[in-house]
């Protein structure tokens, strides 16, 4: 990926030297998040087989508990969605540790990736795959917009001149990203996921054993805590730009390149 796409593209666009270490990471994530979200959109919404977005309270309506719970078949489209997402997040842990630049929230990012892998594996094993598919749909769009914005930031200073179009696109992208984060992760996630995993299960299975559900909900709530934590950084950046304390959009989580975790970090991906 880096050798055949990111580096030639950076050379063709004459991306500034200070942005070269971060360029491959954002290009890779923009492409992979776009592909994963389009897959989620098709499976959850467009194919018409599931109504988990429109009627989330019915997600657990046909769910069974006990010994039969682990014997339920997982539809092939959701199965492959899970496998691709699991592969990506395992790769993301390796990338954060050994390839990506070390940031202020890298520890939290590792926690997020680990929690996501655990949630994916757990929900797959106990056959909570429908609500898992909904969680994936609500998450990846914001990541696409974030990486798009970062790519525009890197492109606005290239070929030894400033490109106003890329600066406008970075500003617009960040505003849309902020709105999408608030809507999908701070509004729809608790409304459609947390509400369903608590009240939705209760109204359909109030007399069943819910030990696994309680544990699952704790993990989902922990994920929401991370959403709020990162939204704090988003608000900080918006305030800085609005008050004139910062003149342009940039990733407020990043240290300078020389403060990478070790001498090997910060090198481009070799995906």
UniProtKB/TrEMBL annotation:
Residues 28-243 form the TLC domain. InterPro entries: Lag1/Lac1-like, TLC-dom. PROSITE patterns: TLC (PS50922). It is found in: Membrane. Its main location: membrane. Pathway: Lipid metabolism; sphingolipid metabolism; Sphingolipid metabolism. Coiled coil: none annotated. This is TLC domain-containing protein. GO terms for molecular function: sphingosine N-acyltransferase activity. Residues 252-271 are annotated as: Disordered. It is a multi-pass membrane protein.
């Amino acid at each position: 990926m880096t050798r055949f796409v990111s580096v030639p593209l950076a050379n063709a666009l004459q991306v500034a030297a200070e942005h070269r270490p971060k360029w491959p990471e954002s290009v890779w994530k923009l492409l992979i998040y776009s592909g994963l979200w389009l897959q989620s959109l098709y499976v959850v919404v467009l194919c018409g087989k599931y109504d988990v977005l429109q009627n989330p309270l019915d997600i657990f309506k046909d769910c069974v508990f006990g010994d039969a719970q682990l014997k339920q078949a997982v539809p092939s489209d959701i199965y492959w969605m899970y496998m691709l997402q699991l592969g990506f997040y395992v790769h993301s842990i390796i990338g954060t540790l050994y390839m990506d630049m070390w940031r202020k929230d890298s520890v939290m990012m590792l926690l997020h990736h680990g929690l996501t892998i655990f949630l994916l594996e757990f929900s797959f094993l106990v056959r909570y795959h429908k609500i898992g598919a909904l969680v994936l749909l609500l998450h990846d769009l914001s990541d696409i917009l974030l990486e798009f914005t970062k790519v525009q930031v890197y492109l606005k200073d290239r070929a030894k001149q400033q490109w106003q179009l890329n600066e406008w696109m970075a500003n617009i992208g960040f505003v849309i990203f902020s709105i999408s984060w608030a809507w999908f992760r701070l509004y729809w996630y608790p409304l459609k996921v947390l509400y369903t995993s608590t009240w939705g299960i209760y109204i359909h299975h109030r007399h069943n054993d819910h030990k696994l559900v309680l544990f699952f909900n704790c993990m989902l709530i922990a994920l929401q805590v991370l959403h709020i934590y990162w939204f704090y950084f988003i608000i900080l950046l918006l305030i800085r730009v609005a008050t004139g304390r910062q003149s342009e959009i940039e990733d407020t989580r990043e240290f300078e390149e020389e403060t990478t975790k070790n001498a090997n970090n910060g090198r481009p991906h070799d995906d």
